[in-house]
């Protein structure tokens, strides 16, 4: 369906056309009429299906027909500052020809940002995009004016619950008018999301699309490796991919990020790392360099697995298997966006085999296991129950194990489609 068939405000259609988009994705096609019609909504769709535009476009349409722009009308709550910044940037694009103002509210800035946020929360910006913790800091000081909020949107709701924001969300809602439209968007639909929905939504319409499945354009593959082989393997894999100009590597810990970057640089691959150890302005600068292709390889923790709009990523490498099977979908969802293709490779050690077997069950397909390149000692044999016998009687990079219990020990620790 073309956006023009959704009866959106001409100024919004002009902005969409200016950005080069004509066809609505399924989530947009289904969600926009329901939101414009005033219904509460519980929507579940995988990363990369255009969820952000699915709620921004109808809300901007509604705001464009209002004369009063002196009060906060829309509150969007998101789990991370990166997502808050991204959504605010998308609002600026879609509302280019509409007199709508927005501001992101998140932590990590300086005193001037706090004052700017305070002005918006008191004198009014049409749309507030906020992380729970920072918004509550403002609410606790008593000056926030939410009396005129008409739309509450929870984006990445499942991630917010995973991060322990349930009580914060309930506290924020206590400051809002009882009469309002409530929209909840999530990439997954676990029982805790349905429980939250019952406490917030009023007779919601429900949309569920492609639950927890990587995009069809993703070529998925895996290597069975011992931990000692991982860094050398990714350096080797990158040798035959000179045409890949955007590569994202996910690590399970902040410590490993720096270790991977160091190994890549030693192998002749310029790269940068990003994690919560960096200051906010440093993180934003690293992201800008990666988005603009000035940085070819970015190594990140899971902070980037959801909600970051980075187009045309050629290759995703999971240095570690995600602890949560759902997180695999979000990591892999960073590539093959906007009807493009991409490659996602996962490195699996012995202890992670059971976790990866759960992932295969979730996505309802077996991921191809590729033999290690020539010159590598054999890796462990695939055992979806989590134990393995190493090929050739060797373990962990070819060294003979001292006992059965040491085998494979790891260092584990506890359309408009481009916009998500």
Essential attributes:
Rossmann fold, 7-stranded parallel β-sheet, 2 domains, single chain, 420 residues, alpha/beta
Assembly of the depicted chains:
single chain
Unreliable sequence segments: 387-420
Sheet having the most strands: 7 strands, parallel
Contiguous helical run count: 14
Q: H/E order of the elements? A: HHEHEHEHEHEHHEHEEHEHEHEEHEHE
Report how far the terminal alpha carbons are from each other: 19 Å
Q: Under the CATH scheme, which architecture of the largest domain would be assigned?
A: 3-Layer(aba) Sandwich
Radius of gyration: 23 Å
CATH evolutionary superfamily of the largest domain: P-loop containing nucleotide triphosphate hydrolases
Total number of β-strand segments?
A: 14
Q: What is the overall shape?
A: globular
CATH C-level class of the largest domain: Alpha Beta
């Amino acid at each position: 369906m073309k956006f023009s068939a959704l009866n959106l405000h001409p100024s919004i259609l002009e902005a969409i056309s200016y950005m080069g988009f004509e066809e609505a994705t399924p989530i947009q096609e289904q969600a926009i009429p329901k939101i414009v019609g005033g219904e509460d909504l519980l929507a579940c769709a995988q990363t990369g299906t255009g969820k952000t535009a699915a709620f921004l476009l109808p809300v901007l349409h509604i705001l464009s027909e209002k004369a009063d722009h002196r009060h906060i009308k829309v509150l969007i709550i998101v789990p991370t500052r990166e997502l808050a910044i991204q959504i605010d940037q998308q609002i600026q694009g879609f509302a280019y020809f509409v007199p709508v103002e927005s501001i992101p509210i998140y932590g990590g800035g300086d005193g001037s940002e706090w004052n700017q946020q305070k002005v918006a929360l008191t004198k009014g910006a049409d749309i507030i995009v906020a992380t729970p913790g920072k918004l509550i800091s403002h609410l606790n000081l008593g000056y926030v004016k939410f009396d005129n909020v008409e739309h509450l949107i929870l984006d990445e709701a499942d991630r917010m619950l995973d991060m322990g924001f349930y009580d914060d969300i309930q506290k924020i809602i206590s400051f809002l008018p009882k009469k309002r439209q409530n929209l909840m968007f999530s990439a997954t639909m676990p029982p805790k999301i349905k429980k939250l929905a019952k406490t917030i939504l009023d007779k919601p319409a429900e949309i569920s699309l492609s639950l927890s499945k990587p995009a069809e354009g993703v070529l998925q593959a895996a290597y069975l490796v011992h931990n000692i082989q991982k860094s050398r393997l990714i350096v080797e894999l990158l040798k035959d991919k000179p045409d890949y100009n955007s590569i994202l590597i996910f690590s399970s810990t902040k410590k490993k990020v720096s270790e991977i970057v160091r190994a890549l640089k030693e192998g002749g691959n310029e790269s940068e790392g990003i994690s919560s150890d960096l200051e906010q302005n440093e993180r934003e600068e690293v992201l800008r360099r990666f988005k603009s292709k000035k940085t070819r390889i970015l190594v990140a923790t899971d902070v980037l697995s959801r909600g970051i709009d980075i187009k045309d990523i050629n290759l995703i490498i999971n240095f570690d298997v995600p602890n949560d099977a759902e997180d695999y979908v979000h990591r892999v969802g960073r590539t093959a966006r906007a009807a493009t293709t991409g490659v996602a490779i996962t490195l699996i050690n012995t202890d992670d085999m059971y976790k990866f077997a759960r992932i295969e069950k979730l996505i309802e397909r077996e991921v191809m296991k590729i033999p290690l390149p020539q010159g590598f000692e054999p890796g462990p044999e695939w055992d979806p129950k989590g134990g393995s016998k190493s090929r050739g009687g060797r373990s962990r990079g070819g060294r003979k194990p001292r006992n059965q219990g040491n085998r494979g020990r790891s260092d584990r620790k506890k359309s408009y489609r481009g916009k998500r």
